Hints:
The structure holds two protein chains of two kinds. Chain A is α/β, with parallel strands linked by helices. In chain A, 32% of the residues lie in helices and 21% in strands. Chain A has one domain (2-116): 3-Layer(aba) Sandwich (Hypothetical Protein Ychn, Chain: A), CATH 3.40.1260.10. Chain A has helices at residues 16-29, 60-65, 79-85, 101-110, and strands at residues 2-7, 33-38, 74-78, 96-99, 113-116. The longest helix of chain A is centred in the first third of the chain and has 14 residues, at 16-29. The two termini of chain A are 20 Å apart. Chain B has a five-stranded parallel sheet with strand order 4-3-2-1-5, with helices on both faces. Chain B is α/β, with parallel strands linked by helices. Chain B contains six helices and five strands. Chains A and B meet through helix 1 and strand 5 of A and helix 6 of B.
Amino acid sequence: MHILLVQQSAPYGSSHAKEALDIALTAATFEQDISILFTGDACYQLMSNQFPEHIDQKNISHMLKALPIYGLEEVLVDEDSLNSRGIVNLTDSPVLKKITKSDIKKIYQSADTVIRL
Amino acid sequence: MLGFLLLCEVVYTQHEIKPLTLHCKINVIDMNISILVLSAPYSSQGAHSAFRYTQAALKSGNKIHRVFFYQDAVHAGSCLATPPQDEFDLYTAWQALKQDYDLDLVICIAAAARRGLINEQEATRHNKLSHNVSEEFELSGLGQLVEACAMSDRIITFGY
Lengths: 117, 160
């Protein structure tokens, strides 16, 4: 059973990013095989130097750093989305991996369940 | 001769159609589906479509393992919402569907609590004056969504 969680929202404009991450953490806690894919505006979640405390929000990149502790080993990001947005400085994470459009197709095909948020 | 040919045609057609129909029925009836609803009632059509899809799936003989309400969709469980009388009442529609099919309607407890939706038990725990979740809905954790992913043939998401 492989779950693919697709993140497609920017971090603080809506609750999508945080509540999607909560699904991933819960699935990992229950020892499910889960991957996260960041595409489109969700790439902004991965930027280093975020200061959301100025708008009374929790720093989402801190939660992303904690993913390996929960046993979540596959965190993927669409390289095209990063390039088209000019995002260069990413949060330091040992599990974060850049992938291409053709890889994304394969990942969708191999997943049993896809949840997009 | 013509009659014989016609008879052959009918027999041939029946033979062709029968196994196909049987094949479809087996596939449809065996499906075990879970629904993930994300959008708020009346703000997005997704909330309404989720209901219509669930109803159609049940009517066509499928099994709905669970309907999980997350994000703004948690408002579907409110017992205080009162839509105008000339509009479709999505709240009582879910409640009636639960009673008809013994559906498992689960609202994410964390998403609900931060949006002001709590049941009697939570109201007591957090020392609140009142509660507003219909008794047809159960408040539970995200683990219920993860379990639904593991147990269902399909997860269908509505609203983003």
